[in-house]
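Sanity check

After download, print the first record. It should look like this:
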Amino acid sequence: MSNLTNTVYEQILTFQAPWGSAFSLLEMEGWFNIQQMYDCVGVFAAGLDNLLKRNLSFTPEMLASRQLNRLMNRTLFADTGYRGMLGDPVGLQRMGIWLHRGISAALMD
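Expected structure tokens:
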């Protein structure tokens, strides 16, 4: 583990001590990862919603049958207005970088 991870984990243990509980490092990382996954799905759903609103003739069925694939690229998910659990706003930035609260993580394109 990095020094930063150890420091954060020690602070969490200190905070929890009065209640006699202690999250494991795995539980702490799991909680963070769950929030990132939730935000990823939220941005995806918001992008698809924006696509459907762009043209009222577009339908969810067209999405399901992949008829709208030609209209989808990373810009569809860049500025969706989605307010996430880890940041506000959350979106896919240039070069496939996931950005929230100043923290970025590379995603596969």
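If your output differs, re-run the checksum step. Summary of this record's structure: The first strand starts at residue 91 and ends at 93.
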